[in-house]
Each structure stands twice: as structure tokens, then as C-alpha cells.
Write a structure and sequence with these properties.
Blueprint: H1 6-91, H2 96-124
Length: 125
């Protein structure tokens, strides 16, 4: 029969002690940093929620931008048609003041349209 080697028991006990100390070290590290790990997980969840909100807001801004752009195009088309009709009616008269007032109204209209465009761009930022 085989004789048991005392060195085997000694090596076994050393390895077992080393393994147990490693486990204790890991448990200590985990218990020490568990709260920080939980905070990191909570921050990751918060970041995911904020990213989802940001995507929703970007979608809403895109929809508003398309709506504003459509409204602005309609406004410009109506203004151009009204200006052409007004100029046509004014050109039938020989009155200089009518031309002057027509120019003022058209210039004021374009100024208002430009301001509306700038305001809508600023509101979307």
C-alpha cells in the first residue's frame, strides 16, 4: 500500500489557506466597494433615462421645426401672392404715394418674416 506523504498534507493546507485568504480578500473588497458599485449602477440607469428623455426631446424639436417650417413657407407664399396682387392693383393707378405705401408695406412684411424666422430658430435652440 501507498504511504501517505506528509508534504502533500502540508501543501494541501497551504493552498487551502491561501484560497480562503483570497476569498476573504474578495469578500472584503466587495463589501467595501459595494456601495460605490451600487452608485455606479444607479448612475448608469440615470444616464439611460436621461438619454431616453433627450431622444424624446430631439424628436419633439424635429416635429416642431417641421411644423414651423411649413407654417413659415405658407406665410411666405401668402405674403408673395398678396404683394403681387397689391402691386398689380397699385400699378393701375398713377399715384406716387400708392407706390410708396406699397413699397413700405412689402418691406415691412419681409422684415416681419425675417424676424419670425430668427425667433423660430432661437426658440428651437
Amino acid at each position: 500500500m501507498e504511504k501517505e506523504n506528509p508534504n502533500v498534507d502540508k501543501v494541501y493546507m497551504e493552498e487551502k489557506d491561501k484560497f480562503e485568504s483570497d476569498i476573504e480578500a474578495w469578500e472584503w473588497c466587495y463589501s467595501r466597494f459595494k456601495s460605490k458599485i451600487d452608485k455606479i449602477v444607479e448612475y448608469e440607469r440615470r444616464v439611460e433615462r436621461l438619454e431616453a428623455q433627450l431622444r424624446d426631446r430631439e424628436r419633439i424639436v424635429d416635429l416642431k421645426f417641421k411644423e414651423e417650417r411649413t407654417n413659415l413657407l405658407i406665410l411666405i407664399v401668402i405674403f408673395v401672392i398678396a404683394s403681387v396682387i397689391f402691386v398689380k392693383i397699385t400699378s393701375q393707378s398713377q399715384n406716387v404715394w400708392a407706390y410708396f405705401i406699397t413699397g413700405l408695406l412689402i418691406g415691412t412684411g419681409w422684415t416681419v418674416i425675417i424676424k419670425v424666422v430668427k425667433r423660430s430658430e432661437e426658440s428651437l435652440k
